# Entry
Amino acid sequence: MNPHRNMLGLGNYDVNVLTAALQTKDLCLIWFDRRKKVEKVNFSKVKGVILNVPSDYKLGFVKIPFDFKHWYVIREVQGAFYNLDSKLDKPIKLGERQAAVDFLNERLKDEKTQLLIVVEPSVETSGSWYMEDVNS
# Structure
């Protein structure tokens, strides 16, 4: 029995496992408040974003009637953003910043989807991962 994963042993590790793994790389995890605007995320200060999304689990053609979730990463590599979901055959290039913002906004329409931001400790402390302004 592993207290940090789904009770059926099918994945969906607890966020504490992600947090601990990122800490070994001197990175922090920030839970994105969906009331904020994805457009204001300062991606130049962000190492990547992690999505936790609803996911069906099937045994053959039979859908298991439980609420499963799946983690995957969106990351910028050499100026382009990629969907690095392990369920894909290969990474999918989303495009430049606006394409990533549109992708994330679309996913956040589902209220069960969570977005987490991966940053260095100094960025977490300063809050510079998000571009606040007086007119928002």
In short: The chain has three helices and eight strands. The CA atoms of residues 38 and 101 lie 6 Å apart. Residues 97-108 form the longest helix (12 residues).
